[in-house]
Each structure stands twice: as structure tokens, then as C-alpha cells.
Amino acid sequence: MCRLPLVRLALVAGALAASAEAAPSVWIADDGTRISPLTEAPEIDLGDTTKVELFAFRDETVAFQVAIRAGSLPLDDVTVELLPTASAYEQHVDQAWIDRFVVHAIRALAPTRNGWSNHEETLAWATPPARPPDPPVWIPDALIPIEVAPAWAPYPLRIPTHRTAALWIDVHVPDDAAPGRYGARIVVRKAGRNIAELPLTLDVKAARLPFKPVETAVFYDPTILAQRLGRGEAELQLWHLLHRHHLTPMLSAKTADELRRIRPAIDGSAFRRENGYRGPGASKGTDVAILGAYGAFGEPSPSALAKLFALSGELSRIPRALDVFLYAIDERCESERAARWRKYLRSVGDPLLYAIRVGESCHLVPASREADVILVPSAAFRDDEASEIRSTGRWLWVYNGHRPRSGPLMLDTSPVDLRINGWIASAFAVDRWFYWESTFWNDSNSGGHGPVDAFVVADTFHNHSGDVALGDGLLVYPGRQLGFPDHSIGTDLVFPSIRLKNLRRGIQDAGYVALVASHDPALAERIVRSVLPLALDEVPTPHHRATWPSDSMPIRAARRALWEAITGNRDLDEDTVRHSLVEVAELRRSRVERSPEAAPSRFAVAVLVGAVAGWSLRRARIHRSSESGPERQRKERGA
User: Fold this and answer.
1) If both were cysteines, with which of 36, 253, 399, 603 could 138 make a disulfide (CB 3.0 to 4.6 Å apart)?
2) Among candidates 448, 478, 477, 446, which has minimal Cα distance to 460?
3) How much is the pTM?
């Protein structure tokens, strides 16, 4: 990525003639930096180079931001373009590689918090030492493509006096790009006249970045999509968006018709160019699906079994390997429903039903659970238990994030928190990282406040225990808002967030780790440990601070070290990627030692289990019900 986190630009002659206060400022920020409307131009030593230096492998996306701050005069009709360079020694960055987004900020009046007597712990962090630095009042997150930018987030940019606007730029390097140096000019103009210009270079190596080097599952609710955007192509657009970001949409079905609806994502046809897809992983299908999201099938019964039989028959006609499980129950560890379903499916004597795995989410010791897939909150993950689960042929997925052990979803944590989860997944060879929601626009928990304007409201999650979370379960933004016409852009597109971009960056970083580990696992492990001294169950107590950096500079430096270590035309298959990351995890297991003071006491373990239990109970969600979306919402709001 960018060598400098922020670079002050010299302005053109006309601007230099004006007073310093009147002159606009333009600078570059990397993809782990927040630029809010109140961000002031940084004071950086102008003796440093002003060249933006990017580095990448083939089939990788790199990103940066261009910030423009108005002086004592407002700025209108401001554009940012990447234009060809005049250098004869550089290839040109193709315009087809570039996507530009207007950065939209949301005002946060208060942070993520809870209403219990223990005000120190929230759904995002365990204790005050684990709390991240406070974000700005205006938190930038939504990224709106410039082609559809509305009047309230316009492009060309319109910047009031002493305010800052930012443009996010993605540069995707195709998998067939020639290795070498590419060049471009970042040109900022006001009404067609240059106000700043900065050279950009992009160094591309011959190796290909692995697609989805670590696995995820990002849930979304098709009912919420239809309610908010209408019944157009929003689901297809969401599949495309997640796939481009190396994320796996958590496809769910309860009927054969629903399974047929999601089949294009499973067989990969949804990700073909003729269906509008552009990006990595073309034609590669989604490899996981759930039957009955969040316990929708209820208790085992003949009627539920008949539905599963129809689903299994439809699944048998899909010509590809697919990880499928019945999501028996969510965050109710006292229930043995998963065990009952597991026994029921194995007793009917049908090979198709016998092959269906049974899953549940629970914070208790996973080895004691009678389920094939256990989703455990990241705060309750233990590496030794994960190894035990894997040895029995079962899966253990990490669930969401909670500081200081992993990065949470919330809007008011550091942008790099979600990025660090990719590093954690590579360091621990996590089977899959599950994110509970991405389209939580309706605040439909018990105790929730109902549908929100996603572009305005920061407090998007409430529950009956008084918890309030900023942006929890909201990783994408709706292009159309039925019910909120003031901020409806009128398109089926689903827009990314800065948090989604940082999830992508962390997953791509895991690809760097795999590339290096395929030939030098010890070097890969050392570099990972330099960024991530402690994570998950290595963190001795909830009262610990998060050990990863709060800004992206050290992470970028570690990624650069990994990039420098790769030579030649490496192209790893999925098995090699997985094996390489397992080697890194095994090395880490032998080298990250627990000192006596770091070993958690019984009291600390008890505190942790209690905290996770409370966290799980307080996160009671609408998905536990098998009723339809609108009906569930009316009941939860007491209507």
C-alpha cells in the first residue's frame, strides 16, 4: 500500500497565490485511516517523497483515499481522476482497474455501550483496557460509487468551508496482468482546473494472490433485502460484492424453492462475466450453505424431516462439493436440540439425510457439544479445543469479534480491527470465521427500535438488556431505501463500507502469509507474530489491552516484508494454501509461550465464561424465531 500514511501536496500556482487559510489542502491516506468531515490537513514534513507507492500481486485489490479540505472558501465541482503518466518506463494503470467511491460519514452521538450494572463491558470490548481509541464524532464508513452519488453525498464533490471530503479508490490488478511497474497521475480538479497532482506507482509481482485464503461466512437476510430494496437484483448484487471482497455469503434455505434461488451462487454461474461479475474468483461457487438459519426448523419432527428430505434431494443435483449443515439452534447452550437433530437424522436410514451435518452456536466447551459444526464466540475460542474438534472430523468456527481477543464488527472501533481478523485466521488456521449479519438495517431484536435509515443512524443495534451497538451486523448499505426516501439512491446496488474493505484487506494479507509460508513457514510466522503478539485464547485475561496496532502503518510494513519475500510466479491451489497456514499455526503454537503471569487463573476463566455467557444471552436475536420477517418484527416491538 501507500508508503506514507498521509502526504501533504503542493498546490498549483493559483492556489499558492492565495492566503494559506483560503487555500484548499489535498492529501493521501491509506485504507486503514478515517477521514471525517472535521479531519484537518496533517502537518507532514514536506521533505518526504510525495510519490504514492503501491505494491500488489496479480488478482489483488489495493486501495487508498484522496482527502480534500476546503479553506475559507467552499469548493464545488471537485473531481479526482487517475490519468496516464508520461513516463516511458512505466505501464499505465488501466482505467478498467479502478473503482471510485464517495466516503459518507455517519454522526455518532455516543459510543457502543450497555445498560447493565457493569458498564465496563460492551458487545465490542470486554473491559476498559480493551476499549479502542475514541473515533471522531462523524465516523466515515459508507462508500457510494461515484456513478450513482446522490445530492447528499455528491460527485463531483461539494465541500463546505473548513470541511473535508474524501474519495476512496480501489485498484484491482487482474490475474492476467503483466508483472512490473505501473504508473498513473492522481489529478484533483476544481471546475476543470488542477488544484493538485500526485504521481502514483504500482509494483506488481508475478505471483497470484490466492482467492479466499481464509474462509468466512457472512450472513444476510433475503427478507430484509426485499423489504428495503424491493424484489430486484439486490441479492445478486450482494453476492457479487461479498465475492469481490473474498467473503463468502452465508446462503440459507428452508425450502427446495429457496435452494433453487441460491443455486447460481453455489454452482458459480452468478460469478460469471455474462452475469455482470467483475473481480477475483470468477466462476467459483460458494462452498457453504445452511439449512434453516438460526434454528428456523425448530425441533425434529416428521414435517421438518420431509422438508429436509426435499432439500437433500435438490442438493444432490448440484455438481460440486458443498459444506452444508442444519443450523439447529442459536446461542442457547442449555438446549440439546442440536444433539436431538443429529440423532434423528442418523436414525432414519437415508444416506442423504445422514450426510447432513448439524450445527449450533454456543460459548461452552465445544468438545462436549453433540454437534458437527460448533460456532463459538471468538472470546471463548481455545486452540487446543479446536484441534480436538478437528481430530474428530467436526468443524469449529469462530463467531464475530470481541476485543481484546479479536476485532469486533462495530462502527466505533478502529478500522483495522476487522482487518486483523484475517491475520488471526492465518495465525490459528481457523476453519471459518462467521459474521452474524451484514444487512441489519431493521434493528429487529427484542428491545430493538425498528428499521433505521442506514445512512444517518449510527445506533443500529438495541436489545432488551439495554445494549446499544454502532453498526453491529451492518457491513453493507442499501442502494434503495423503501421507507426512507430522503436517502434512497434508487438502485439495486448494495454498497460496501470501510469496514468491509478492511475485512478484504485482512483476508488478502492472509494470502500473503500463505504465499510466504509455502516456502518459508518460519519467516511467515515471525512476521505474523510481529503484528499479532497475542490473540484469541493467548490473551491472558479480558482486562488485557488488544495487542495489535491501532493504526495500519505497522500492518502495512509487515505486509511489505511478506511481499518482498516472494519471488517467481507462485500460484497456490487451495490445499497448498490450507497446508501452509496450518504450518504457520503449528509454529505459533510452539513459540507463543504462556508465562506464569499470562496463564489464566481459574478465576479469570470463570470471569471470561461468565462474560461470554452474558454477551451471548444479551445478543438474543430475531433469527431464533421461525416466523416470517415482518411478523417477527411486529412481535419483537410489541405491536
Assistant:
1) 36
2) 448
3) 0.91
